[in-house]
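Go through this pair.

…
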Amino acid sequence: MIFFDPESESLLLPEKLVPSLTVGGLNSHLLSVKEKVLLLFLKRDLKRVVKFGGGKVHLAWKPYRTVCQCEDFTAALSPFGAPNAVALAEELHAFGGKVFLVFGYCGALSPELRGGDLFLPQMAIREEGTSYHYLPPEEIAEGSKEFVDFLYDFFQKKGFSVKKGIIWTTDAIYRETKRKIEKYYSEGCMAVDMETSAVFCWGKAKNVHVASLLMVSDGFVDGKWQPFFKNGSFILKRKKILKALTEAYSSLKI
């Protein structure tokens, strides 16, 4: 089945939907966001970034979305999964967003990645459905090279363990089978997540700069799943990463 439609424009647009669901809809210019947008998936991560970035809640987006205006960028809370992340990106793009950074989590396929490490996908295997509504199957899902390189250099200079490479993006978190893990690892994938390939394809289709910065939260070792979420070192490192991320994104020139 082919999902990509190269000609037709959507009849449902974020410029129409968002005002109908928000208090700012009475005056749409109140929904404006900054050119740099940061998407996060956990409330505690959003709270930390807003604190570090001198931000406050963007009330005009209530009650539909949790959006915050920091000094140098807009931060927003996304539900997990490709459809959710892309829908939110579409909406924020419609109201002024031009550069998009996703901060999330990934599972390690490669022994080179350890719990708490940072991973910057350069390319992504498209095993989710959303991307196929934006680009045909033969198109490669890839991040904005200059953006990825900027983040890589920044975090390296700060002393963080950070690697670049290929990621496998899937819709089915509970179908990360041994066979698939071995297959994608043999094809060069270092990690797995649920959003990157879709956001990359959306950015490519919309001519928007996109990057994804992921923290290794779990991994597959000797055919078994190993979580790192509650490790003390992981929790401490996450706070440091979010502070550095706020500094990095604030300093990015567009």
The helical segments are 14-21, 43-52, 82-94, 145-157, 178-186, 196-206, 232-251.
